[in-house]
Design a protein that fits this description.
The protein is α/β, with parallel strands linked by helices. It has 2 domains: 8-267 and 442-464, TIM Barrel (Alpha-Beta Barrel); 294-430, no CATH class. It contains 13 helices and 18 strands. The longest helix is centred in the N-terminal third of the chain and has 27 residues, at 69-95. It starts with 7 loop residues before the first strand and ends with a helix.
């Protein structure tokens, strides 16, 4: 047992202070989270477009039949609730009364409040807590408290937590089980970088977590309410000075990347094999996500294509203005596209390379794509089912008009489509592959030598030694 590590009381029983990070769209499911709880930790079922099953136990494909986005959005919510409920029930059975089961929700997913309420209504007594991030989930505490369930907000700064506490959480303080600090430079998936923070200049998490604890103390929250350190946590020996540290109070550690590579992990074998080949720097912090958030994913051909698409971009004016005194003569119809001489030469070069079509962005720019790419982008935008509360790619918004009021942005992508595809066996090189920035350590850690893939129990036992 690693020095200083002690069980904590959570959900009415003693558990190890080890949380399985909840990875959405079927990258964590009942098998992995149930096994994590059975090993004595806190397993996390993703309630983000989780899989449901037919009577024979086969995964139900999430096929959308409705003609309108609003109707497809209702289909999506039904799929989301049914899937998460199925996953919770199965995880609870696997846990066998050990550990605890949380669910994870993205506040910026479409219909988040309805999904959360629908799941909690049908899983009473099974869910210990709700982790929730990606946005400012003010209503999380109210919803969780109404079902007698703990809530664990995911934030990336003390400032964000202070706003949540003052506006809402202080009214349901007794149900605040922990605060998850998700490091915006190290965590996989969507990251909470603010406009004041430089994505290229990572900050040490210690002073940021110390500041968070100070904010919590200001609100009268006792040190026994843990801070969950999430993002970049590979082993405990590297965090030894955080354990029993009076400056930080109780600390719990979340593991998001390492549980991807276990026997019970539901991700396809190709994805697991790819994780073992990553090198340092292969995970990119990027801003192509239709959520508008930064996010971290493997820099595979899918991401490199998005980078190249944005590179093939020029600004235009609708009339001759300053340096924009050259009419664009490739990729467009009409004469009201004025560009600089340099951009005209770029455009002609891209056109000659086969990028013969243009698409407008919301920023008065044009990107150059192939005819096939343009057709696929247009189809994906038309097929939108409202998986986000606001989507830059399709202009869907979860409001009365169901629109953001902005032009759909072709520099982004349909996140629902690609995450569903990779989670269910689609090509790993041509889909979004989320991973934390420590994923390159699979290649270097002797625990995984000779292609060894542990069970969840073996992984948790290993973590408990400090390694």
């Amino acid at each position: 047992m690693f020095k200083g590590l002690k069980p904590i009381l959570y959900g009415g029983r003693e558990v190890w202070p080890l949380v399985e990070g909840g990875k959405g769209v079927s990258a964590t499911n009942h098998a992995s989270s149930g096994a994590w709880a059975a090993a004595g930790g806190i397993g996390t079922v993703s309630a983000v477009n989780a899989d449901s099953y037919d009577p024979e136990g086969r995964i139900v494909p999430q096929v959308y039949h409705a003609l309108t986005r609003r109707e497809r959005h209702e289909e999506l919510i039904r799929y989301a609730i049914d899937g998460a409920v199925a996953q919770v029930h199965r995880a609870y059975e696997i846990a066998g009364g050990k550990g605890a089961i949380n669910i994870n929700v993205l506040w910026e997913m479409g219909g988040a409040q309805r999904v959360l309420q629908g799941v909690l209504e049908r899983t009473k007594g099974l869910v210990a807590g709700v982790t929730c991030g990606a946005g400012m989930p003010y209503k999380l505490s109210e919803i969780a408290a109404s079902y007698g369930v703990n809530y664990l907000p995911i934030i990336s700064s003390g400032r964000a937590f202070r706003a949540l506490w003052k506006r809402a959480y202080s009214k349901a303080a007794e149900w605040l089980a922990a605060v998850v600090y998700e490091d915006p430079w190290l965590a996989g998936g969507h990251n909470g970088l603010s406009n004041a923070e430089d994505p290229l200049k990572p900050q040490d998490p210690y002073p940021r977590v110390k500041e968070l604890r100070e904010v919590m103390r200001e609100g009268g929250i006792p040190d026994s309410v843990p801070i969950v350190m999430a993002g970049g946590v590979w082993n405990l020996k590297e965090w030894e000075h955080w354990i029993d540290n009076p400056e930080l109070g109780q600390v719990v550690f979340q593991f998001g990347t390492r549980p991807l590579l276990t026997q019970e992990s539901p991700i396809p074998e190709d994805w697991k094999r790819r994780l073992m080949t990553l090198e340092e720097g292969d995970v990119l912090l990027h801003r192509f996500s239709p959520t508008g958030f930064y996010s971290s994913a493997v820099r595979n051909p899918f991401l490199r294509n998005l980078e190249a698409r944005s590179h093939r971009q020029i600004a235009f004016t609708k009339s001759e203005l300053g340096d924009h005194c050259f009419q664009l003569d490739v990729g467009v119809t009409g004469k009201n596209f004025w560009v600089t001489r340099g951009d005209l030469l770029h455009a002609r070069q891209w056109f000659a390379e086969g990028y013969t079509e243009t698409l407008k962005t919301p920023d008065e720019t044009l990107i150059f794509v192939t005819a096939d790419e343009k057709a696929q982008i247009r189809k994906d935008q038309a097929d939108c089912m409202g998986c986000l509360s606001q989507c830059a790619f399709s202009s869907w918004a979860d409001n009365e008009k169901n629109t953001t009021g902005r032009l759909a942005d072709p520099r982004s992508f349909c996140i629902q489509k690609t995450l569903q595809d990779i989670a269910h066996g689609g090509p790993v090189e041509h889909n979004l592959m989320f991973a934390g920035h420590a994923a390159f350590r699979f290649r270097k850690d002797p625990f995984y030598s000779n292609g060894f893939v542990p069970t969840v129990k073996q992984l948790v036992d290993r973590i408990l030694t400090g390694d």
